[in-house]
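FAQ: What does a ligand-bound record look like?

Like this one, built around zinc ion:
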Amino acid sequence: MSVRNIFYRSIKSRGLRLTAQRKAVIDCLVASKKPLSAEDIYLHVQRRGLGINLATVYRTLDTLVESGLAERVGMELHRAYYTLCRGRKHLHHFFCKGCGNSYDLPHCPVKERTTEDLIPEAFTVTSHRYEVYGYCGKCSS
Ligand SMILES: [Zn+2]
Ligand SMILES: [Zn+2]
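The answer part, i.e. the structure of the complex:
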């Protein structure tokens, strides 16, 4: 099953309707390796010829976050960015505080072994967060 279809199915299994708008927002996030802002998604969807307004994009993103399918990242930036929760295949990012660009970190720096040692016994870890902030080459010069 494709990544899109997995997310479509998750929408339905949470009792939510799979509307054209929700599909379009998911497609956008699936196709992008970078976290996207609501404005980025809005522009992509518009370009594909589907009528959507920015408020709907925000509402859809809130729904995806509330149902655990997407997460809000880059909390220190002045606007919100979103990425889908992909479990083991997740990515961590470096965020530039100047231009808002993000870059993937090559691998997950949170080693399972380390967490195992630090987390109290009988505690099940379901997710973790690791973000790096600073200025990219262009913004720091
Ligand atoms: Zn920058
Ligand atoms: Zn990780």
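Follow-up question: can I read anything off the structure? Yes, for example: Residues 90, 92, 108, 110, 128, 130 surround zinc ion (ligand 2) (CB under 6 Å).
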